[in-house]
Structures are given as structure tokens and as C-alpha cells.
What we know:
Chain A is mostly helical. In chain A, 77% of the residues lie in helices and 1% in strands.
Amino acid sequence: xxxxxxxxxxxxxxxxxxxxxxxxxxxxxxxxxxxxxxxxxxxxxxxxxxxxxxxxxxxxxxxxxxxxxxxxxxxxxxxxxxxxxxxxxxxxxxxxxxxxxxxxxxxxxxxxxxxxxxxxxxxxxxxxxxxxxxxxxxxxxxxxxxxxxxxxxxxxxxxxxxxxxxxxxxxxxxxxxxxxxxxxxxxxxxxxxxxxxxxxxxxxxxxxxxxxxxxxxxxxxxxxxxxxxxxxxxxxxxxxxxxxxxxxxxxxxxxxxxxxxxxxxxxxxxxxxxxxxxxxxxxxxxxxxxxxxxxxxxxxxxxxxxxxxxxxx
Amino acid sequence: xxxxxxxxxxxxxxxxxxxxxxxxxxxxxxxxxxxxxxxxxxxxxxxxxxxxxxxxxxxxxxxxxxxxxxxxxxxxxxxxxxxxxxxxxxxxxxxxxxxxxxxxxxxxxxxxxxxxxxxxxxxxxxxxxxxxxxxxxxxxxxxxxxxxxxxxxxxxxxxxxxxxxxxxxxxxxxxxxxxxxxxxxxxxxxxxxxxxxxxxxxxxxxxxxxxxxxxxxxxxxxxxxxxxxxxxxxxxxxxxxxxxxxxxxxxxxxxxxxxxxxxxxxxxxxxxxxxxxxxxxxxxxxxxxxxxxx
Amino acid sequence: xxxxxxxxxxxxxxxxxxxxxxxxxxxxxxxxxxxxxxxxxxxxxxxxxxxxxxxxxxxxxxxxxxxxxxxxxxxxxxxxxxxxxxxxxxxxxxxxxxxxxxxxxxxxxxxxxxxxxxxxxxxxxxxxxxxxxxxxxxxxxxxxxxxxxxxxxxxxxxxxxxxxxxxxxxxxxxxxxxxxxxxxxxxxxxxxxxxxxxxxxxxxxxxxxxxxxxxxxxxxxxxxxxxxxxxxxxxxxxxxxxxxxxxxxxxxxxxxxxxxxxxxxxxxxxxxxxxxxxxxxxxxxxxxxxxxxxxxxxxxxxxxxxxxxxxxxxxxxxxxxxxxxxxxxxxxxxxxxxxxxxxxxxxxxxxxxxxxxxxxxxxxxxxxxxxxxxxxxxxxxxxxxxxxxxxxxxxxxxxxxxxxxxxxxxxxxxxxxxxxxxxxxxxxxxxxxxxxxxxxxxxxxxxxxxxxxxxxxxxxxxxxxxxxxxxxxxxxxxxxxxxxxxxxxxxxxxxxxxxxxxxxxxxxxxxxxxxxxxxxxxxxxxxxxxxxxxxxxxxxxxxxxxxxxxxxxxxxxxxxxxxxxxxxxxxxxxxxxxx
Lengths: 313, 294, 579
């Protein structure tokens, strides 16, 4: 067990180092001068040169890379040229906001996908199965911006019962809850179908296993067979898939946040990328990868605990 | 992708390759879902091919005559966009953009992904280790963030989108191909080829790869869907193809603000992109189904 | 009267006579006389009109009644219990106002801190923190007198030292303020720093041109001793970073910063919102609203429209062309619109071979049908451009024959220049706002007709602003904001060697004529020189200028007292809210 963790931890450190180096070098090729971005287009050349010197941007890449690693480790994430302030002043609030959105979506996706997936997988090729399968294919196929357009058209413009943007500002009389409905709905629609199909596939496989057939033949009640034997085993394979959705929900929600002007991590990354704000891109990408790698490790660990064959070997 | 590779073994009676292909396509008839998917994809392919014939106007021409009346009319069946350009023509030409960029990108990703996967799976050892480490690192990036970093740094263009898709999809394909190769390399016909003294490249490309095609075809279909979405999303985020040539995601971005007044301007490109992706995904499902059955 | 005003500036009596003779119109009279130091009230009295009304009328609205309601009336009307106005606008960090690059940066700070002067929506500049200004006849010495009794929010009185501290700071190169770009010509001089750059050339720095360039006369009076004559000093003091900050805060701005304005910043969440609360003890008229909130809705124009539709905000700081039709349809929104000198120009750098020949540059202009570009890219809101960057609302604007599209003429010019079959080239333009790439697209279609194939290279805004004034972008489409005077624009953009001369245009005859024009106070006389300048621009100049923009925005009908400013400056203390 300790060996498992040590190995994984080493892997995490290795990945983060490589990733940080890749991001830093790519950012070096980012068009544009950091000092120019801070001072804006109307400052003179002399002014820009002075600031470049003051910030030490004219020193070799390697020195600055190690300096950057040192700073990052000590908690200093650099200066954002987009927001004109320390990245630390921005990123934590944004991560927090996105976590709220992600947790709600996750809390809906997990039970719903398990329910629909099991119901569909229980009776393969039945009418219910076909309906759920096709519906989940269709919802996954609609890009987030498209479902954002469809839903806002219906609920904001036509019915007028939901606010058009989710700025998390309650001043105008729209509650936070009402502001979260549409972004969560779009995320759930886009992601749910995929997870349902994973659960379903696993359930179908489990239902074909001999011990389920035996149990049914032995005369146990069908409901009992499903609940006691099938579901537990059917959940092992999709466990990792479900956990990996955290990645998408936390760092992949750029489109949703852009559509609804939600002040979260994804919108921050988009704005950083559009204005080539190196500090934001670097810090954000590091966080994204960190979250990805950690969920991966948790996933592996959980899989190990769930799956008796691995656990006892 | 849970398909069992053994179903695609090369143990079938030999007859004309074309006949076999046709028979396989005909099998799709048994899957109504697959048929619908194939129909949708075929529809857009035809639209893209026939674009110059069926498009009523030049997609980039502003109609100065209609002033600011952008609603559908006898002159413009679906109306125009907010620059008075015929919406129908832009949708038609937009299908070309996506159906050129997406397959090219997926194709490039497959070339690289297959090579890497074959090398890793066939040679194993340190080659495997290096290839898998690299792909693990790329895969640890959230896709959309990786897209944004690449496009933001290298600029939005069709070439860079293809580059980005290749970069992101190739490691995923590598993993699949590697998995299939690890299994197929133990087969009798591979052993036979080795005995004949065939080169490693021959074995990988002629013996192993064609026999891994089943799951790969399904994956390619799904990947076309993802890539279509990715191109749309990049367009919507303002990282897509540069104007003026129409791209569906970009059309939504440009008109989304006018949705309260001119909903068609954004809803129609949304429907176009969704229907094409639905098509790819249903087709993939259909192919998988018949693959499982035969 | 005549003697009195002569003391203020010797040219004023002449100006009064011109007004009486009908040689200058009222607006121009107001502009020039206030520029020369006459108080706005006195100027309006001489011009025979009521100041408040004049200002109100000049901002036009689609629905006139809303705008003509005077502020006094609405204040008597019952204010709603929730007396807060919410405006959709980017909320960046505001740590260093001197380096603001955009108007929206300054819009939050502007409610807390003031400018020395204000240019109104009528394009007339008036003293604000100043009581008055006086210019010497040669326009080289400007005496600025502060209003007495203005109190900062911490209780200090505003004195000359405070203003001098700010002026000196803006002009300090290390601070990095864009005020340098405006004032360099008459306040600064270059000197050799003694260091060398990588290429071995001496590094040049800038400093005040003379020790007494900024001179304290007494506690309320400052004198600017300029290197060269300058007509537009008061206008420059209204440049968006030129906010007067309290020296004790060392140029930093933030929550609870000290200011002379009507509001205090109580909350600032970058990228999310900024909250301003009315403060007691403001030296002007107390604002009618309790609080102003700026809500950040990102760059997506659709998000702002949705927020307006759901009444999450009451107005936008600026609206884009892509939002116009949607705003029009909202019943609770009034669209405010004003003609401005805002524009964008496709500038060609004659230092490159492609654009060396003036005939080629003129051919590019002749290929354009400005009216059509205006229609297709800017919904016809504004007026067609005339390729000389002097706007019909500039006082000294001289009307030339309209430069019509002439494809044959353009082709002939190209043939004369040795390129009968045209050529291929590339233009850079900015992605946002969307009318810019649209205008470029429409123009590219027109250039195709004279055989010039222009590849469009659309860059993200920040990336574009990296290259707007460098040699490596021979052909690019740049926006220019509104400036009150024609000579101001030409001097900033086309004089040889000035920092913002993005086309690297250098024409001694143009420079010489421009200097002449800048020294002429008499608008009639100046206009004659403007004819020459405008002709040079059309025949030889480095730009294709397709349009002048009318700018607009949408505000809730409940907001009273809002006037749209040609540069989108917001003055929230003038607003009120009805129930």
C-alpha cells in the first residue's frame, strides 16, 4: 500500500515538473512583450524598456524558469497582465466558484447516470434501453454552446423565468440558485449521456456473467439479484470514469462559464488565453493538471479497493 | 470500445475485397440507429460536395439591398446574418470547412497514433515506456485547456487547429492501438509472419494493423464527432478559423447577442453542428452493434 | 465686457465679434472661448444660450423625452428604495490609474477621483477641479488656477502641490503613463542616458524639458511653461489616466482610496464587480443615487444583452454593433447615441516597398465605397469617412469634395505605379469589437475589384495592440478614439517621429503646415490651412478611412440624467433612478 502511494506520488511530481517546463517554454514563444501588456498600447518604447528591465524579463529563460518554479512553490503565482494584479488575488476565488458549480453538477450526474445506466443495462435491447441509449447519444452530441443557446432561448428570452447571466451577484433580485440552474443544466446534459453509456455497458456485461444467471435460475427475486449482486459489480468499471468527470467539471467548463458570464476558473483561463496572459495560463494549467493527476490517483486507489481481484492479489 | 478484437480476425473465407466491404456496409441496414447516423453524415457530405451548386449566394457577399431586414424571406430562405450575408449559403459552405478540417485532423492523429501505438505494443520495453509516459503527460491536460493554450500561442488558423487536434488525439489513439497490438502480436499469423522472416514494419502494418481495424473504425467515427464539437467550440470561443469563411461555431458566436431578436441566426448553425455530431455518434453505435453481432 | 475678456486672452474680443457676425457657430465659440480661459458660464452667456439645455440637447437619444427631463425634476420624484444603478462593464484591477490603457479602466476610478478639466458631451472643455485657465498669446504658457475649498475625502484641501505631484508623476517615464504620448512634444525632451542598447546605440530617456516646466505660482496656481505652442492643454488634462490622486497614497488606487469625487469605492472584486457608495462632504452637488455597481460580464456581447434582458443590470457602458438590434427590441431600454470622432483607419506604412508610392496609397482609397462599408459594418450608424481623419464635428473641419469610389481611377493609378495587375498583400486587424473585422472584410472585397488581393490576418485584441505602431506591420486597421480638435488628431498620428505615428508617415510639408495650423486660434483662418492638410492626406496620406462611428449604448428608462459621452466616460454623480 505504501509502495503504491510512493510510486504514485513520484509520478505526480514527475508529471508536474515536465508539464511546468512544457508550459513555461511554450509561454516563452507567446507573442508579445509582458511589459507592453502591462503598460498598454499607448506607452512609449522607452517606458516599456524601463519596465522590462525592472521586472528582469531580459534575463535568460533558464534562470527565469527556476526562479518561477521557486516562486510557485513558495506560493507566488506571478502577476497577471490581463487583470493587472497578482494571480493569487484572482485564481482562488475563481476555483471556489467553479467548485460550487462542479459539485452541484456532480451531485446530479452521479445518481442520475447510475440510475439510467442500470435501468438500461438491466434489459439489453429492450425498448427502454434503446430509448435511454439513443437519448444519451443525442444529448452528448449537442455541444455545450448549442445547448446553452437552446436553453437560454427557451428559459430566458421566451419564458423569462431564469436570469440570462450567472455573475453570482444577487443585487438585481435573482437568487444564486436561479443563476446556477442553466449552467448546471448545460453541464449535466453534455456529460450525463457519456457516463450513462459507461454504466450501461458495464451493467450489460455483468448481466451476462454466469453467477447472475445462476442466481436468477435459483429462483431469487429479480429485484434482489439486481440490487444485491449486479449493481455492486457493475459499478467497479465505471467508478474511474465517473471520477474522471471531476476533471471535466472543474477545468473543462470554459464554454459554460463563457456563455453565462460565470466568474469561474474556465472563464479566467479563456480570458487569459485570449489576451496571452502568461502568468494566468501557467498557473491555471498547473492547477488543471494537478487536479487531473490527483483524481487519477484517487481513481486508481478507489478501483483497487473496490475490485477484490486486485485487492487480494 | 469494449468490442472484442477477436471478432475481427482474418479467418473468414477469402473472396473479393469489394464484395466483403459492400456486405459489411449492407449489414448496417440491420441497425436502424446506425442507418439514421449514416444518413445524417451522408447528407452533410453531399451538401459539402455540392456546395457550389446548391448554395444560392456567395457565402461572404453582403446583400446591401435588404437594408437591415435580416429575417427569412423569399430572397433569403433562412434569413441572413447580421452582416446581411445569406444564412443558408453560409451553413452550406460551413459544412465544407468542418468536413475538411475534421477528417484531416483525425487522419493526422491516426497516422501518428497508430505508429506510436504499434511501436509501443510491438517492441514493448523502453519504447513502450517512453511512448506511454509522453502520452500520459499529454493526456493529463484537460483537453479544452490544451486547445486554448495551443491556439492562443500559435494563433487561430485551420492548420493550427489540425495541429492541436492531432497533438491531443494522437496519444489517445496510441493507447488504443497499443492495447490491441499487445493482444494481436501473440497471434498465430504474426508468429507465422515472423517465421517467414518478414520485417517488423511489415508485421506491424500488414498483419497487425488491418486486424485491429474494427474498434478503430468505431473510435474514428466517435472521434470525428468530438473533433466537430471541438472545432465548433473553438469557433464559439473566438479561437476558430479567421473570417470571412463561414464556420458554424463562429457563426453562433457572432449572432448569439441577437438571439432575442433573430433567434434563427444562432439556432440554425447550432442545429447543423449538433446534427452532424449526432450523425457520427449514431453511426459509431451502429457499426459497433453490427461488429458485435457478426 | 470686451475689456474684461481681453484680459483673459487677447484673442477673445475677436472671437466675440466673429460670433456676432455669424462667422463661427455657437458651439465653436463655446469651444474656443472656454479653451482660452473664459469660464463656461460666461461663454454661454455671451453665446446667448442656457448651458444646461445646450449640454442636454447635444446628446441625442432615440426617444427624446427621456433625455430632456432635467436632473432637478427627477430628484424631486421619489427615489426607489433600492437606489442602486448597476452597469455592465469590465472590472479590471485599478491599482495604478496613471497607467490605465482603456476608458473602462478609468470609469470606476473616475467616480472617486476627478480631472482638472472636463470635456462635455457637447465637445466643449470646461474647468473642473480648476477654477479657470489662462493661455499666453503664443500658447506656450498656461496658467491653471484650482477651485478653492475642494476637500478630499480625508478632509485635506486640494492644493497646487497635489496637482503638481500628479503632473510630475505622469510625465515620469518610469511610471509608464500614456500621458507621456500626449505631452511629450511640449513638456518633455530626450536625453542620452549614457547606457547602450544591444545594438550599441545610445539609450535615450525623456525628462521634463526645463526645470520650471511645471511651476508652482501659489497654493492654488500652477504654471506650465511649454517647449512649444500647444492649443489643447485643457483637453490633454482630460485624458483618461489623468486622474488627480492624493499624493499620500503614492499613486495606488483601491478600496477606500482618497478622492475628490462624489463616491467612495467600497468593494472591488476584479473580474466580478466594483461597488461605489455615495460619500458625504462632496464639493459639488450630491449625487442622487446611493450606490453604483459595475458588474463584469466578460467580453461576450451576448452575456451583456442577456443580463440587460433579465434586468440584472440597468445599462451598458458601451454597446457593440452586434447588440444594436437586440437593444432596440427591449421595451425598457433607451438607446443613447452620439456622433463622434471615433474611427478606424487602414494605415499603410510608406517605409515599405508596397506602400512607398503615393499613387498606390491613393488607389487604395479610391477603391472604397465608404457609404457601403458604413452600412455593412456599422449598420449605417455614423458617417462615411473621407480619408483625411478630420471629422465633421471638429470645429476646424473643412469640407472637401467627397472622395467617391472610383474603380477605374484606382486601376489607372496602379497602372501608372507599375502594377497594372494589382498585387497581393496582408492586412492586420483586431478581432474585437466585431465591426472592425467586418469593415476590413467589406473593404477587402472592394480592393479585389482593383486587383489588390488582401489577406486578412485577424489578431486577438491584445496581440494587435502589440503591433499597432511597429514597422513589422506594414498594413493594419487601427481604431482611433474621439479627440475634440482636428489638429490634435493629426498631430498625434501623422507628424514625423511622434510616438503614436503608427504609419511612420513623414512628410515635411505636412508637418510644417500642421505646425502652422496649430498656432492659429482663428477657426476660419485655421480652416483654410486645414484644407491643405486634408488634401495632403487624401492625395499622399498613409490611410484609408472608411467611416466615422456614432457610438451608442442602452440604459434602462428608469435612469435619468445619463448622457452618452463621445469617449464613453461615465459621470455617475449626474444620474438618478426613478421608481
